[in-house]
Amino acid sequence: MRSHRRISSVAVATAAVIALALTGCTGGGNTDGDAAAPTDLSVGLIASPASLDFTTTAGGAIPQALLYNVYEGLVKINNTGDIEPLLASDYTVSEDGLVYNFTLHEGVTFSNGSPFTAETVKFSLERVADNWTANGPGYLSPISAITVVSDTEVQITLSTPSNSWLFNMAGPVGTMFSPDGVDALATEPVGTGPYTVTAFSPGTSLDLQLRDDYWGDAPYMTEVELRYFADANAQSNALLSGDIDVVTQLSQYQLVSQFESNDDYKVQEGSSTGEVTLTMNNQSAAFADVRVRQAVMFAVDRQAIVDTVNSGYGTVLGQMAAPTDPWYDPTLVNLYPFDPERAEALLAEAGVSDLTVALKVPNLPYAVAAAQVVQSQLADVGITVETSTLEFPAVWLDEVFTKHDYDMSIISHNEPRDITLFAAPTYYAGYNNPDVMSLFAQADAADPETSIDLMKEATTVMAEEAAADWLYLIPVVSVADADLTGVPLNAPTLSLDLSTIAR
Amino acid sequence: MTRDGQLPAGTRRRRPEARVRAGAGTRSGNLVVGSILIGIVALAALVSIFWTPYNPEGVFPQELLLPPSADHLLGTDNFGRDVLSSLLRGAQISLLVGVVAVGIAVLIGVPFGIIAGMHPGPLDRLMMRGNDVSLAFPALLLAIIFGAAFGANTLTAMIALGIGSAPAFALVARSGTRQVMSREYILAARASGKGAWFVGLRHVLPNISGMLIVQASVSFGIAVLAEAALSYLGLGTTPPTPSWGRMLQDAQGYIYVQPLLVLWPGLAIAIAVLGFNLLGDGLRDRFDPRMQVQR
Amino acid sequence: MALTLLRRIGVFVATLLAASIVTFVLLSILPGNAARVALGIDATEEQVAAQEIAMGLDRPALERYADWFGHLLVGDFGTSAVSQQEIGPQIGDALGITAVLVVSSMLLAVLFAIPMGILTAIRQRKPDGVILSGISQIGVSIPGFLAGMLLVTLFAVTLRWLPAGGWSDPGDGIWDFVSHLILPAVALGSVQGAVLSRYVRAAVLEVMRDDFLRTARAKGLTPAQALLKHGLRNAAVPVLTVLGVQIAALLVGTVVIERVFAIPGLGSLLLDTVALRDLPSVQGIVMVLVGLVLVINLLIDIAHTVIDPRLRSAT
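^ inputs. structure came back:
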């Protein structure tokens, strides 16, 4: 039951994806008289971690702060979305894709001084099944055996080949923990990463300090303050007045032109893995008929949503994949062009008139805004939408996600490559197509090239069957002080990777 | 010094008539201006039931953030909606919130206060302690909890505001009742065997109605401001129903793009609240019995 | 006198008890399973059930209440169900910030309201009095967060004189502390000041019509002198009441300003913990708020009797 049950973690407040921070300290009152540029950084974010333990607390806010900065795994995802070695200096895969051999770096220590060895790898991965309740414990289900070959060599055997397994190992679930460092994960994280947490005030700020015994190349910034703003306006004002150095994921796109025309700031736009989705409950009376779902797809003008909600920023989608995913198919974007007449024709064909649906959205600004556009557009084709705003996370998780008590909802799905989770019959979308699930399973076990073809086939079926309306990909617009460099362009993982930021 | 207001001989006197005239001018000035402002708001709400220049609940992607023009007198917002139409429809919500919140507060608080005022002693003390407990839960706190419990929308907000404002009405009703109860004709009525209910309804209520109306007027203004604050926190009216508070909250993000968007709902809120406060001031002056005395 | 004090304290404790029951019942109606929210969407039903037992959610209500209240009386607020941090220190930090904000803004309010209120009352029928009165009326009609918004846009973003938000402890530097405090305190204080000045004005007007004041004037004093010598004491009573109510409302009411200025005060802590269904924290915060309001009321009562002996016999 649990072996293939992977459920992605869904959107986190407004800052959907990790944008890499542009570092830069300017303005404000914090400049000291040093000749060298300051090495402290202040980053503005929106969603705050609730605790420091992502093994038992869901959401992207904790990995955003801690993954790759405080915690590390055998591999990581770099900024262009490719897998790179991290704690493993090298790895090989057997021909049949079942045996992975990792060679580990030597001299790696945790922040509490404990050594990192192959035993640590075994310990960390084996404790997932019984101790983790969040952030994808099911991702390790392909593992059938972990063998410690020597202090610096470990062999992991899979029961079936899996293309996604190594990718997931680069995420939170592949994090390495020390046996003596797991007692107080919620308040005292102990990892091999370059930073330690020196202070954490939930809802306000999280302070990171560079370790002097880090095994790898030390990042430039020695002190990083992650500041959390409940209000996006307060965040923008803090940036404009010089209180913070960078906003890694600007949510007020209407301000971009203002920043661009200001020489004190550098603006860049990259891509994320967050798909804002208008989910239609395939199991509800309203949307059981594929023609009704397709009608909605034709009635909703995705570009208009992007223009209204995001001031034009964001890529219109037609599938649940990011352009950085290998199986992304650009032709699917135009499968359902904006065509209200066709929508009305489909509704008539399905014998539906005077349809009323309940749109239950989380109380996140982008969702509430997009809901108003959707309501207006569906009204034009004769579908009455009753919008209600549910408190997120508590009520939305309960009503929509767990109980499936909804007709439509709008939320961003942030985890990379989470289409396989979405297609699961027990997922809240209620999409049930065994052929598609079988395609995904085959794709995971096949060789990379065939895998891409199979994934494309599966995503095309899902698009043709209007499993959901994937509206747009969340853009990653970062605004930083002009003297910062190395701010990551894209956000292909949950992590806000601070290692490349310099001044 | 005599009790009927006569000054001792030798006091510098001003011409009483002139003073009363000038005073009356200011007093009724409040009343007049307040009534006019409220009248405007009420008119806007009434008209919007039947007609608004444009649809304030749609989305018009071709007309985002337009400045004021002949077509759109106050411009359009970030959804392309005509600001004037949204203001008109928003007046409905503001008045509705005021009416329901104050209504609930009156229905709960006034009987409570009258009963406490009519029975000084242990009952009064107990009820006042109960009042203290409810005073400890200010309206905003209740709105946050109710919003989480029952879903955040206009109705929940109004009920929370109503319950939160009830203690103030109870206090006003109680102090007014005690004043009335000490008057001689009340004692006479009780002595002649008239029952408590009779005394309460026939004598107390009409006599304290003045101060209750004043309190209601002030509470109305507070309710409008509270709705704005709740909308800012995301606990108020659900979109796409227009509400001045939410318009203000949405406009905040565009203050560098189209600052006028902040001005209009802010002005509307200020006019409505100002109107209620002036009305309350004017009514207070009107109902104050001492103003009848010539000096 | 001692008996009265004792009785007052007894009433205080009884009220606190009643408030705690109301709080507990109120919060038990919140929908959304606290265990589910803590564990998130990956957790299975069995894990959620186990978490509920670990959080003690399966015990009968009376037992949970007694356990919680018992700990509360000895000052143990417990640990947060979500962050695992101790609740007491968290509330203490947030309360310290809110208290500073409330006190400083009320000080500003009082400094503004008293002269303003007296002036507008004395010069009630003169043009300048009417204009000043009009200004304070407008001040009352503006939502507080609008004032904050405008202040930030002007002083922080455009002029860059002050920070746009955030908080700095006094220990980290006096100028940092003051510069972070100015804008929110002014935003809050100006609105509260306008409200308070209306009450001061009304109270002063009341007093001006009183008999004994006319006696003073008959003796030849000007209105201002008469007021200062005799009237203020009486005017102070209702104004103090209003002050108490304002402070009590502000304890939570600052949450809007806290949002605008990103200040980690008590109101924000409340909103955050409610959203996470971190019930132990929410209960702790609400009880602290209730306790503070009752204490403030008590102090105002005592102040009343000090100022006006005639009120001593009243309940």
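Chain A touches chain B through 28 residues (CB under 8 Å). Residues 1-34 of chain A have pLDDT under 50 and may be disordered.
thumbs up if we can close this ticket
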